[in-house]
Amino acid sequence: MLVSLVAAVVAALCYGIAAVMQAVTVRAASRQPADGGPPGAALGTVDPGLVVRMLRQWRFVASLALDLFGFVAQLVALRRLPLFAVQAMIAGSLAVTAVLAAWLINVELAWREWLAVAGVVVGVGVLGGSAGAEGARAVSGQFKLALILAVACVAVAGVLASRLRGAARTPMLGAVAGLGYGVVAVAARVLPGYSPAELIRDPAAYAVVAGGVVSFMLYATALESGSVTVATAGVVLAETAPPALIGIIFLGDHTRPGLAVVGAAAFVLAVTCAVLLARFGEAGENSDGGPGAGAVKRKNGEPSTSPV
Question: Pseudo-torsion of CA 241, 45, 71, 193, nearest 10°?
Fold first, then answer.
């Protein structure tokens, strides 16, 4: 259990640092107008070329390595911890990003944000202490095939969301991306093992890969032209609550005896505080007047043009 708790913390650290690096590459690789106006010819769709352009930047390649390491740590955590605990801890990566911004480049955090950081730490700590061992791992083949169908539904929903206009586009893209990440977490949880022979035969492995790619593209699209706070809040909510319910209903996840209320309160506290830190889900706020410009300021009051 202790190893799994440490692994979940390591995953949150890796994801939090990687988010900063990916935010910079999204803005640099974007073909959106600098004034944050309507996109060009690619408006109303998900741009696969965005990821290709991001791959040309070393920060993005390094962030992928961090994400990969974080995902391996998440797999280790899912071997012994219930989904609701792991997903809440992963949402806590936003606290890592916020503290990193305050520490490295002197970005000013309001007292409410420091309280939110503390809330994430307390919520995650209590949740980890109240979580029982994971439930039964065995699921039917139909359940795993349903995960692949869920990825396909996420992809279709993401394309439809990308065609929306106005304020609805960003939160919808963020929420759909979050659902995709939730599918990835559930699929990773039900993997029987990690040997090549097992992975090749298991539909859940394909759901992990496809869900990860689709979700990342949708999240990048949401960040490309929308408010980071709105997009990231949607991701946090959608990638934590649904998997938690699935784990409890279908996979037998539970808290320690007598700690169900404490665990539920800790989960709500951690996720709520993570949402309050949503603006740090993309630290590449710029000062060029584009989306989110000026939202992150240094302690001297000047807008930050650094990666965070």
Answer: 90
Domain membership flag for residue 291: no
Quickly tell me which residue has 């000026």 as its tokens.
294
- The model carries a pTM of 0.80
Burial level of 43, CB count in 10 A (0-12/13-18/19+)? Answer: middle
**Does residue 301 belong to any structural domain of this protein?**
no
Domain containing 84 equals 2-281
For residue 181, the 8-state DSSP code is H
Give the 3-state secondary structure of 221-280. Answer: HHHHHCCHHHHHHHHHHHHHHHHHHHHHHHCCCCECCCCHHHHHHHHHHHHHHHHHCHHH
Q: pLDDT for 128-175, tens place per residue?
A: 888 887 655 578 999 999 999 999 999 999 999 999 888 889 999 999
Let me know: does 124 contact 307? Beta carbons within 8 Å. Answer: no
Cα–Cα separations (whole angstroms), residue 296 to 21, 136, 160, 223, 234: 16, 44, 31, 15, 20
Q: How many domains does the chain have?
A: 1
- Asked if residue 286 is part of any domain, the answer here is no
- Segment 85-113 mean pLDDT: 83
Q: Is residue 294 part of a domain?
A: no
